[in-house]
């Protein structure tokens, strides 16, 4: 049963990645100017005719677009994301240098967002009409309305410029020997911006799910029969977490979009910042590679979320109707 | 056992019950009968201390010499846990859909009376067997069983707990005729074998005739008639009761 389910999810993931690759490649083609020139990146003026000829051959730029796409896709599937037209190094090598930072930022922020939103959402959801209930509604609207870049600028101004307690940018000190403490100091602000702008809205969603679950018939039956509030709460949170996880799954792609802005603002050396840099320098191999790797991260995260839902919801396993 | 005196419930300026009086005698099956919307279920909610927050309630519900309308939320939770078991109408939605029945049956019965899981397994095995349910149901999720089987699971918990008072709120209305009969027989068995006092809420006179010793007839939030089933059936005094009985035949 689970192997069939996993197989289905993997096929869906591959289809999603295929669509991502298709869109990213053809959006490049639709960009203004000659795609071949775009592939030369910022070096177009300085390249010799021989070098241009080499790049043209390498990326099949003189062949029809469909063939170019298939050639690029075939190489990508083999793990060869091409060579950065700006840096002249393999794209996979550049991405692998940045990937740990992105994974660190993502895992730390998601950990605190999930823990914080479950706590806030549960406390507020179980106390309908209380100050917690109303307070969370206001908090979630306020925090999710603040643009991440604006909050980031405020954080930089306050913690880096005014107080001078945290570094304003980067993911490590210049010499790179600061160790864990240095990493944490650099991580605090970008992670905090992502946490603050997301935790409220995630908590609000859970709060509403808990309120709905709290009014279910089985909860009334349990209360009438003296089941302890602790047991009832456990059941409510478990069931409310199913739509909550769905919400996380739906918002994961936009979360990655938000993290691109935050990485750029804080010069956090991750995939997001790399993507922005690739756009700015028209380094198309690097850009497509970054988008593909981000796509893989999204698909893997969604797969993990789906696995958790599969474990929590017996109706997914037993084929019932929810 | 329970004496309801002058009980009035009002929600959002609407009178749900108006000065109602009735008695549930120990060891008897008392039926509260009336049409939909007559206030039966809200009366049950008042007995359980589970009225909506915005409900205004006055009067007395005397239990063991004490007005439980004055009890705190914690005291009522404790009372429900110790003395009362309630079976509701919609068995299909009475259990948490994400938890196996075995765990839920334990929560509703064994854990409630302080039994270990081993003791529960042994006792519940016997009860389920007596009620014609295979032990395998404990490994099932609620959505894998029929409404009739789930209602029997509920009454299995009542057999296990042996509560001082069993409240059955329209327990058969979601069941077909055959299952209705079976269920009522189980209620009678529980009353006869264990001496359990039962408050049976229904709108079905046949069920009252078959199971109850005493009955109270409710109409538009008031009790219009009360007495033994034999007396009320043979000599109804209220016009509404007469109409109800006439519609039966």
CATH topology (fold) name of chain B = Rossmann fold
**Number of separate helices of chain A:** 13
What is the number of E strands of chain B? 10
Annotation, overall tally of beta strands of chain A: 0
- Secondary-structure class of chain B: alpha/beta
Protein architecture, described:
Chain A has 322 residues and is an all-alpha fold. Chain A has a domain at 96-287: MetI-like (MetI-like fold), CATH 1.10.3720.10. Chain A has helices at 2-30, 35-40, 49-58, 65-77, 91-126, 131-145, 148-162, 179-214, 217-224, 229-265, 271-280, 284-312, 314-318. The relative contact order of chain A is 0.14. Chain B is an alpha/beta fold and 249 residues long. Chain B has a single domain, classed as P-loop containing nucleotide triphosphate hydrolases (Rossmann fold, 3-Layer(aba) Sandwich). In chain B, 41% of the residues lie in helices and 27% in strands. Chain B is built from nine helices and ten strands. Chain B has a six-stranded mixed β-sheet, sandwiched between helices. In chain B, a hairpin with a 2-residue loop joins strand 1 (2-11) and strand 2 (14-24). In chain B, helix 3 (101-113) runs parallel beside helix 5, helix 4 packs across helix 5 (147-161) and helix 5 (147-161) packs parallel to helix 6. The longest helix of chain B is centred in the last third of the chain and has 18 residues, at 177-194. The mean pLDDT of chain B is 89. Chain A binds chain B through residues 129, 216-218, 220-227, 229, 231, 235, 238-239, 242, 312-315, 318, 320-322, and chain B through 48, 50, 53, 77-78, 80-82, 84-86, 88, 90, 93-100, 107-108, 112, 141, 143-144, 157.
